[in-house]
Amino acid sequence: SDDASAALLDLARRIALQAAEFAFEARRGGVSVAETKSSPVDVVTAVDRDTEALIRRLVLEARPDDGFVGEEDAARIGTSGVNWVVDPIDGTVNFLYGIPAWAISIAVVEGSADPARWTALAAVVVNPSTGEVFEARAGGGAWLDGRRLQVNTDVPLSHALLGTGFGYAAEVRRAQAEVLLELLPLARDIRRIGSAALDLCAVAAGSLDAYYERGLNPWDHAAGALIAAEAGAKVGGPGGGAATFELVIAAAPGLYEEIAEALRRAGVDA
Ligand code: IPD
């Protein structure tokens, strides 16, 4: 119901703001490269882990029966049918280098922890460096600090500013390079901001016309996808379905089709 998703959004916002303050303060104290995951640039900082632990504790204190899917720790299966999908710091490399484009990303989804089958109920993305708080509730629109967001419409690909990301695994980067070669000559330009969550919020806010990326993980896009969709974006794979999120495109419907078509020409399917 509306009341239930409004309560979830309130809780998600409160927790995201607390996590944002924690991570921002920790960043001021300097960061340590604690370990690396799939490649040397996939940097996991101690702050990343501690921030996820904080979010998880706050969620489960308030809602002990919910599931929790985070980037850092093993998933927790809940019994309520509600799952929290969390990227404690999306844009870890920006965080590491002190570039002010990293975010706390929290989505509350229903039904299943499987991204192909869940229904997003509420989402919050906080950029602690700017203080921006993006949020959405299913059916309730997308908002930035009290202002309703609306994607840019009627922008042809030739005039579109696209956002993208390259992932960190070698095979994803190779595939991403092919897509980049296909799209770059057709568009106004392409940005690589470094946080999928903020890219999707930028589409919602109209500071990008579209975003696409291959090889995202559910926690990278869960919150941003709802925020973009509630601002009027079509979000999904080139086939149009939410599918596997092997490839995500977010844009106003017309531009979405143009991008999907260009990708199909390049032999990209998802
Ligand atoms: C990454 C960022 C980046 C995107 C990668 C993600 P992380 O998330 O969103 O922009 O290109 O695909 O993995 O690792 O910083 O949480």
SSE blueprint:
Elements: H1 2-28, E1 33-36, E2 43-45, H2 46-62, E3 67-70, E4 82-90, H3 92-97, E5 103-110, E6 119-127, E7 132-137, E8 142-144, E9 147-148, E10 161-164, H4 170-183, E11 189-191, H5 196-205, E12 210-214, H6 218-230, E13 234-236, E14 247-251, H7 253-265
Parallel strand pairs: 3-4, 10-11, 10-12
Antiparallel strand pairs: 1-2, 4-5, 5-6, 6-7, 7-8, 8-9, 12-14, 13-14
Number of strands: 14
Report low-confidence residues grouped into runs of 5 or more. 39-43
Overall 3D shape: globular
Q: What structural class results from the helix and strand content?
A: alpha+beta
What ligands are attached or bound here? D-MYO-inositol-1-phosphate
**Mean model confidence by pLDDT:** 89
**What is the name of the CATH architecture of the largest domain?**
2-Layer Sandwich
Q: If you compute it from the alpha carbons, what radius of gyration comes out, rounded to the nearest whole angstrom?
A: 17 Å
* Annotation field: number of helices: 7
Cofactor: Mg(2+)
Protein name: Inositol-1-monophosphatase
GO biological process, one term: signal transduction
Organism: Agromyces fucosus
Précis, in short:
With 270 residues, this protein is of the alpha+beta class.
Protein architecture, described:
The protein is an alpha+beta fold and 270 residues long. The protein folds into 2 domains: 2-148, Fructose-1,6-Bisphosphatase, subunit A, domain 1 (Fructose-1,6-Bisphosphatase, Chain A, domain 1), CATH 3.30.540.10; 157-265, D-Maltodextrin-Binding Protein, domain 2 (3-Layer(aba) Sandwich), CATH 3.40.190.80. The protein has helices at residues 2-28, 46-62, 92-97, 170-183, 196-205, 218-230, 253-265, and strands at 33-36, 43-45, 67-70, 82-90, 103-110, 119-127, 132-137, 142-144, 147-148, 161-164, 189-191, 210-214, 234-236, 247-251. β10 (161-164), α4 and β11 form a beta-alpha-beta unit. α1 (2-28) packs antiparallel against α2 (46-62) and α5 runs parallel beside α6 (218-230). The radius of gyration is 17 Å and the shape is globular. The two termini are 32 Å apart. It binds D-MYO-inositol-1-phosphate. Residues 71, 87, 90-92, 165-167, 194-196, 213, 216, 220 line the site of D-MYO-inositol-1-phosphate (IPD).
